[in-house]
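Pilot study result, target chain (150 residues):
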Amino acid sequence: MITISGSILIDRPKEDVFAFVGDYGNDPHWRSGVVEMRIDPPGEIHVGGRTHEVMRVMGRTTATEAEITEYVIDGRTAFRTVAGDLSAEGYRSVDAEGARTRFTYVAHAELDAWYRPFATLIEWVFNRRVGRDLARLKAILESPGPLATG
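Predicted structure:
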């Protein structure tokens, strides 16, 4: 199992940060490699809802379906995969730090047998990617003007 995680301080109120990161449909805007993210059923995100993600990973296209296992508005959302090319679970959380917000992203993924010998390298690559993704997220959320979502 590998752990992919990162945290960043964003100069925006936690309600604004959660409105963006709590909507999985925004993932292609800030998560590199995410080609498509669809919510089922469409509309409001809730516990029991599903995400359908298509991602380019290490030269391969993968598709994963996940169930939303926790959804606390302006606080935390969690998921676990239920079908697809990857077995994973994780969460996203927002915490106020004064007028700013700490956003944290954590995912634990089980690698299939072919990838296990490369687990250390894969974990390093993905953690670097998360660092860049969080910097992109920070730039988006700290840009002037209203947030475009969905």
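One observation from the pilot: The beta strands are 2-10, 34-40, 50-57, 60-72, 76-84, 87-97, 100-110. A full batch analysis is planned for the follow-on phase.
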